Amino acid sequence: MSAPTIRPAATPAPFLPYGRQSIGEDDIAAVAAALRDDMLTTGPRVAAFERAFAAKVEAPFAVAVANGTAALHLAMLALDLAPGDVCIVPTITFLATANAVRFAGGEVVFADVDPDTALMTPDTLRAALARAAGRRVRAILPVHYAGPMADTAALAAIAAEAGAVLIEDSCHALGSRDARGDAAGACRHAAMGCFSFHPVKTIACGEGGMITTRDPALADRLMRLRSHGMQRDLGAFQSPDLACDTDGGPAPWAYEMPEIGYNYRLTDMQCALGLSQFAKLDAFLARRAALVGRYRARLIGRRGVDVLAPASGQTPGWHLLVALIDFAAIGAPRRVVMERLRAHGVGSQVHYVPVHRQTYYRDRYGALDLPGAERFYARCLSLPLFPDMTDADVDRVVEALDAALA
Ligand SMILES: Cc1ncc(COP(=O)(O)O)c(C=O)c1O
């Protein structure tokens, strides 16, 4: 009797996560080259990455830091918040936006969001300001959720009336432009813009972040704060004795710490990866936009399903593909839909649990009624979006979603 033929099992299609980095041999070579150089941190690649970044987002200054949370933290420190000072944060965001305010000793007042875009709007900002009445409001932190941008001009005008500045959380919005053509991070209406280079973001450094500003003194201070608050410019020393040797001559080793900072530096290996990724940014953005276009064409019109859209005239640098699904009408809870998608090899995620609902913030500020955020949170589901996806991958996700919602 002949042995039974063993047929190889069909290769399963690879799992599609909701987001992932796109790393090529060029990126690997760039990091390897950095490893062969003398300076693994605070070297020439840091300044080169900052220059390239500033030029791209059309801001005069960019300061590289360890991650997006560090960017937000330093931005908050630079405000010199006094105890009790308030910053306004939209409740649909990653924890870091609100946490940065707390790191720097400020109090968070959560703003509601538009139920279809998850963005802070002039109306939700005004409502939050009304809740902050009688307290000193120092900053408003709009989050350009998923890539589409909040109306920074309108928000900045309201912020100015309240005596506050705008600090943009642009962690989702590298490459986004608003309807006026202003790039996220250009800081036309904001004091600072903060970015993240976490692997699911538009470019990856592993971990990484950037702060942009138009203010040279602020850029200098942020550079000091990312490295313990240290300065080496002898002329700027506030304690001249620290600048001198015993004979009164300038001390070549001198450094002064006029205020306390952190170690939030980004390494040269990370900046090498950032620079190499940055060279491909336009291609990444174009691919992301094409994938979003394909999703929209295939998903819109399905019963109970919509797709997050930007305000007209914007060109978002898309970070997330957010489907808005009426799970109640469909009759399947979100967790079941997610499980069914997973069984088809499709990852999904929820961005985000409204931050005001987190135990820490509820304990601190009590329960809040933010209906726009609740309506958004009830429907949002992020589906796979990353530049290495093919058109066929989008079709596979759409078919899996059809099956999951059936
Ligand atoms: C909106 C938003 N803000 C801040 C951050 C923090 O960035 P990082 O993870 O680089 O610290 C993230 C990252 O997920 C984010 O999505």
Keywords:
406 residues, alpha/beta, Aspartate Aminotransferase, domain 2, Aspartate Aminotransferase, domain 1, 2 domains, 7-stranded mixed β-sheet, 3-stranded antiparallel β-sheet, 11% strand
What does this molecule look like?
The chain has 406 residues and is an alpha/beta fold. It has 2 domains: 25-231 and 257-279, Type I PLP-dependent aspartate aminotransferase-like (Major domain) (Aspartate Aminotransferase, domain 2, 3-Layer(aba) Sandwich), CATH 3.40.640; 282-405, Aspartate Aminotransferase, domain 1 (Alpha-Beta Complex). Helix content is 37%, strand content 11%. It is built from 14 helices and 10 strands. It has helices at residues 25-36, 44-57, 68-77, 95-103, 122-131, 152-161, 216-225, 268-278, 281-299, 327-330, 334-343, 359-365, 371-379, 391-405, and strands spanning 61-65, 86-90, 107-111, 137-140, 165-169, 192-196, 209-213, 305-307, 321-325, 380-383. Strand 4, helix 6 (152-161) and strand 5 (165-169) form a beta-alpha-beta unit. Bound molecules: pyridoxal-5'-phosphate.
